[in-house]
Amino acid sequence: MKITPVTADLSIKRTIDQGTEEQRKAVLNILEDVKQDGFSAVKRYTLQFDGVSPDAFKVTQEELDAAYRKADNRTIAIIQEAIQNIRAFHERQVQQSWFTTKPDGTILGQKVTPLDAAGVYVPGGLAAYPSSIIMNVVPAQVAGVERIVMVSPPQKDGNLTDIVLVTAKELGVEEIWKIGGAQAIGALTYGFEGLEPVDKITGPGNIFVALAKQIVFGTVDIDMIAGPSEIAVLADHTAKASYVAADMLSQAEHDKMASAVLVTTDRTLAEAVSVEVEAQLKTLPKREIAGASIRDYGAIYLAETMDDALQAINDLAAEHLEVQVEDPWAVLPNIRHAGAIFLGSQSSEPVGDYFAGPNHILPTNGTARFSSPLTVEDFTKKSSIISYSKEAVKAHGDKIASFARMEELEAHARAVEKRLEED
After folding, report:
1. Is position 84 annotated in a ligand binding site?
2. Bridge partners of 260?
3. Considering its fold, how many domains does the chain have in total?
4. Widest distance between CA atoms in the chain
5. Are the CB atoms for 300 and 274 separated by under 8 Å?
6. Within a domain: residue 254?
7. Is 90 annotated as a binding residue?
8. Are residues 72 and 162 in the same domain?
9. 340 and 373 in contact (C-beta within 8 Å)?
10. Is 281 helix (H, G, I), strand (E, B) or coil?
11. Is 254 annotated as a binding residue?
């Protein structure tokens, strides 16, 4: 890998793929068909794109039980412990409703209410992502969402993988549909006979899923439009080159457009990591994907000082940030922009992906400058509570009416003055 000095305009930000005009038109057509024709459209597109037409699109309890019986005890135990860790973390995010009072009888507050229904999209087909199920479902459950609907594209045999079903069963998800792609987003948004619409859709997917989520936003809420995965590593002379290289490749194997970047103050480390990346690539099963990612979106930047390195890290605003320096806690206050921050040499990115507890659904493409990981709060909404007494209206009514007239809204002013007239 080429070693480049840090410059003031350092950036690996890529435009989030908005799809081609043809792709956007295709997704619009799919969504409109699902809206108009419901299940028949979903069935038609599932056959067209997935090559199957399941006997039953909704997963039965028998299917869940059968998958669970086939799973080995160690796999189940690992899933259970991961769920426990992730649930414990998210339970600390719960917000309570609150109220405050004033001497004049005014009561103000905020009421926190869980969403009625959430839809979770789980990628499928050739791969299975049980971690995505956990990261989407747990915060919704902790928030108090009563109805959680999971959708995932079927395999070539028309079924979902056993590990997906086992994870769903462990979480207690009962409404599961073998639907993927833009048609799944349409089904969650508009519903059809047997599937009621949801209020919010979360979870990653391909460009067609991303476009569909973007289009239906406003009819339903969504989590985010995610781009390719990213990792940035901030390291000094104490970092171990083999660790850094392995962690960079852990993201590079996701996608040819994934980005893996090292920012370091130590040239010896930079050179050693460059060698390590090439060496580890040779034995990686997904070396073609990871190699393309490293070639096109990988980088090693050399900074003169730690302050320069931190500025570069904040400019990148990466999805995942590993801090492998002598005292990672000392630099933490200076890190402003990152989706998830991994402190210390033992805190590799996969620890957060699967097991530690924090959510792995994170902002990408520099959006960590203004957005956050998926949380319990994303599955709630807030209502403001306002209760004014006669005493409060008498004390402040004329000011409120005057404010309304500043904006030339006479009816607003009169609505308050009607209360004053009663006195």
Report:
1. no
2. 231
3. 3
4. 84
5. yes
6. yes
7. no
8. yes
9. yes
10. helix
11. yes
Single residue among 183, 202, 222 that ends a domain in this structure: 222
pLDDT tens-digit profile of 167-203? 999 999 999 999 999 999 999 999 999 999 999 999 9
The whole-model pTM stands at 0.92
Domain C-terminal end among 304, 335, 356: 356
Per-residue model confidence as pLDDT tens digits over 315-370: 999 999 999 999 999 999 999 999 999 999 999 999 999 999 999 999 999 999 99
Annotated binding-site residue? 255: no
Whether residues 41 and 172 share a domain: the answer is: yes
Q: Which residues are the active-site residues?
A: 319-320
Q: Where are the beta strands (DSSP E) in 224-319?
A: 230-235, 259-264, 299-302
The answer to whether 152 touches 163, Cβ cutoff 8 Å, is: no
Phi, psi of 349 (to 5 degrees): -55, -40
The range of the structural domain enclosing residue 403 comes to 388-422
In a domain, residue 99? The reply is no
346: helix, coil or strand?
coil
Same domain flag for 83 and 162: yes
Known binder of ligand: residue 121? Answer: yes
243 labeled part of a ligand binding site: no
183 known member of a binding site = yes
The β-bridge relationship of strands 200-202 and 117-121 is: parallel
Q: Among residues 165, 137, 166, which one has the least CA distance to residue 76?
A: 166
Asked whether residue 70 falls in the same domain as residue 213, the answer is yes
Domain contains 108: no
Report the half-sphere exposure of 13 (CA within 13 A, side-chain side).
16
157 class by beta-carbon count within 10 Å (0-12 exposed, 13-18 middle, 19+ buried):
exposed
Burial label for 292, CB within 10 Å (0-12, 13-18, 19+), is middle
Tell me whether strands 107-114 and 117-121 are parallel, antiparallel or unpaired.
Answer: unpaired
